[in-house]
């Protein structure tokens, strides 16, 4: 190679080096910019996915709340049904006992009337034994007579059939019991028919 050719090669090399350096810098700048663009694009790409995740979390939370409410409703239903069943069993005998109350009344009337005649003493004892047996069975079922005389009149427990003047009692007090009232456990089975002082 001659001298001119060497100079041309050197000049070309010198021109290529800055161009290559410029290309390298440009390429590096582009590479540096690409991750930023990719990051921005990734954030934009994550954004719909993130939104979908948030939406699914909200739906899951809502479904969990529904399940909890449904479970609570079912528990309440089960407790209410159990309570109704217990109430039904508790007062299952009330119809039969209500029908037996007039029989008890008649027993009491018969025993009160028969004490006058001494000849019927053995009969009275027999009837009294039958009555006590019946009374024991009904008491075991939860039947209790109300004690009304001397108590303040209460419309939940008493049915006033007459108002009378009384010097012994204050106004609004039960003076006399015409028909005995009964409670079955904690429920009024039959209110007492009473006379009330006025």
From TrEMBL:
One of its GO terms (biological process) is protein folding. Residues 1-49 are annotated as: Disordered. The keyword NADP does not apply. SUPFAM superfamilies: Coiled-coil domain of nucleotide exchange factor GrpE, Head domain of nucleotide exchange factor GrpE. One of its GO terms (molecular function) is protein-folding chaperone binding. The keyword Cytoplasm applies. Keywords: Chaperone, Cytoplasm, Stress response. Belongs to the GrpE family. Homodimer. This is Protein GrpE. It comes from Paenibacillus algicola. The lineage of its organism: Bacteria, Bacillati, Bacillota, Bacilli, Bacillales.
């Amino acid at each position: 190679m001659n001298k001119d050719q060497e100079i041309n090669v050197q000049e070309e090399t010198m021109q290529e080096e800055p161009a290559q350096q410029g290309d390298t810098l440009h390429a590096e700048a582009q590479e540096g910019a690409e991750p930023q663009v990719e990051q921005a694009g990734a954030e934009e790409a994550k954004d719909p996915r993130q939104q979908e995740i948030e939406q699914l979390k909200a739906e899951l939370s809502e479904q969990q709340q529904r399940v909890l409410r449904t479970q609570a409703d079912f528990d309440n239903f089960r407790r209410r049904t159990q309570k109704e069943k217990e109430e039904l069993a508790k007062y299952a005998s009330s119809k039969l006992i209500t029908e037996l109350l007039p029989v008890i009344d008649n027993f009491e009337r018969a025993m009160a009337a028969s004490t006058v005649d001494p000849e019927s003493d053995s009969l009275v004892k027999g009837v009294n034994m039958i009555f006590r047996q019946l009374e024991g069975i009904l008491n075991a079922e939860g039947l209790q007579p109300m004690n009304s005389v001397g108590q303040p009149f209460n419309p939940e427990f008493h049915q006033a059939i007459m108002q009378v003047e009384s010097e012994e009692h204050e106004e609004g007090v039960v003076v006399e019991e015409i028909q005995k009232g009964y409670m079955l456990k904690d429920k009024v089975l039959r209110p007492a028919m009473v006379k009330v002082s006025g």
